[in-house]
Amino acid sequence: MIKGIGIDLIELSRIKQSIKRNPRFVQRILTEREQEHYGTLKDRRKVEYLAGRFAAKEAFAKAFGTGIGKLSFQDIEVLSTEEGAPKMVVRAHEHLTIWVAITHSDSQAVAQVVLEQV
Questions:
Q1: Which residues form the 4'-phosphopantetheinyl transferase domain (predicted)?
Q2: Is 95 one of the annotated active-site residues of the chain?
Q3: What gap in Å lies between CA 48 and CA 42, rounded to an integer?
């Protein structure tokens, strides 16, 4: 049964400005394992990666119905499967099946999350 659907769109320029303004922004948004992967990326790809994870986490919060204020960015982790697809795990919500899609354009990142309760 579908429990919720969420979507979020973020401008890459907004993420790039946030990184420049606040060096701790990356640590606030990404978990340690996400930060490890982030550190292996080149300039533009770093912004796309961070924007995609930010959008995915916001989309989860919307799908869950609480907004990000009730959850922490650190409670939500988006890693990749062996095939490269995003896979989301949320602390204390392991009972949910989470479907996540992330895409980028030259100027935006979009993520959609569908929550399924089995």
A1: 4-111
A2: no
A3: 10
